[in-house]
Amino acid sequence: MTRRLRKHFLSATLLALVMVCGCATTEGYKDVVNAWVGQPELELTQTWGPPQRTYETEESKFLVYYFQRDIYFPGSPTTYQNYFDESGTAFRQSYGGVPDRTQTYSCETLFEVIDGIIVSWSFRGNDCIAEEQE
């Protein structure tokens, strides 16, 4: 398979995967949390479980949900190539190699509750995503 054909094949494969799997986006997550506005606090806690933190002011109660996951990405080994120059001296050249790493993904979502009803929300983090609703 030629390099150009491989490139087109890979592009087509990735496009097919995106179309089949859907896309999780921040906009999709906004839709999810916005759907809770006007809903009872009890319904949220029955669906999402108990919040990790709560706090209250004179007028409002705040429910904080926090999710975190760590994903391990294995590295790749360095490749070495030995070669000799014109005088017969040996050299070793290294190529590539990527160290292992762990990426943390998290999302903190805060719901404001007044008189038992969710009135607003906010969120922050690099994993506040959901599939967009149609």
List its salient traits.
134 residues, 8 strands, 3 helices, two-stranded antiparallel ribbon, disordered N terminus, alpha+beta
Protein model, in words:
This protein is α+β, with helices and mostly antiparallel strands and 134 residues long. The protein is built from three helices and eight strands. The protein has helices spanning 3-21, 26-34, 41-48; strands at 24-25, 53-56, 61-73, 79-84, 90-95, 101-114, 117-124, 130-131. The strands form three sheets. The protein has a four-stranded antiparallel sheet with strand order 2-3-6-7, with no helix packed on it. The longest helix has 19 residues, at 3-21.
Task: Compile the SSE list and pairings.
Blueprint: H1 3-21, E1 24-25, H2 26-34, H3 41-48, E2 53-56, E3 61-73, E4 79-84, E5 90-95, E6 101-114, E7 117-124, E8 130-131
Antiparallel strand pairs: 1-8, 2-3, 3-6, 4-5, 6-7
